[in-house]
Amino acid sequence: MKRSIIIIACIALAACTGKYGAGVPEKYYPLLDEAFARAGGNGQRLLDALKDTPESQREGMAYLISYMPQGDLDTMDVALLRENVAYAYMARTAFPWAEALPDSIFIDNTVWNYSVNCTFFDASGEKHTQNTAIYRDMRQDA
């Protein structure tokens, strides 16, 4: 009897957390399956990044990986990906207007791939990702 209860509890827990962990809506599952398959050798690193992302940020990470272009799937530095997702969610809590956005608008307009992999050079020649300057200002204001 005790063993049956443990098995049922494990099944229930697995059902609650889902295939890619709690916080990842099922609508992303087929997109993530395809992205991880197309990512080749980088697929496991991207999967680990998704699973290691805090639950409250996991939908944003799932969105990024799901819609990531092939070149980024092959080569994306997961540390940079994690950092940018974390900063997007930090921005959401730092600004009342951002916190009020529906999840779909926030994810589509704040957590997006181009903010991760687009680079520019400032007047001094220093290389930045698109959001580096914004996040640096946020860190200074915090």
Q: Count of helical segments?
A: 10
Strand count, sense and closure of the main sheet?
A: 2 strands, antiparallel
The proportion of residues in beta strands is under 5%
Strand arrangement in the largest pleated sheet: 1-2
Terminal residue distance: 54 Å
Uncertain regions: pLDDT < 50 for 5+ in a row? 9-15, 130-142
The tally of strands reads 2
N-to-C series of helices and strands:
HHHHHHHHHEEH
The percentage helix is 55-70%
| Structure class | mainly alpha
Please, how many domains?
1
- Structural shape: globular
Mean pLDDT: 78
Radius of gyration: 18 Å
What does this protein look like?
The chain has 142 residues and is mainly α. It has one domain (2-111). The chain is 66% helix and 4% strand. The protein is built from ten helices and two strands; from the N terminus they run αααααααααββα. The chain has helices spanning 2-17, 29-38, 43-52, 58-66, 70-75, 78-94, 96-99, 103-109, 113-117, 132-141; strands at residues 119-121, 127-129. It has a two-stranded antiparallel ribbon with strand order 1-2. β1 and β2 form a beta hairpin. α2 packs antiparallel against α3 (43-52) and α3 (43-52) packs antiparallel against α4 (58-66). The longest helix has 17 residues, at 78-94. It starts with a helix and ends with a helix.
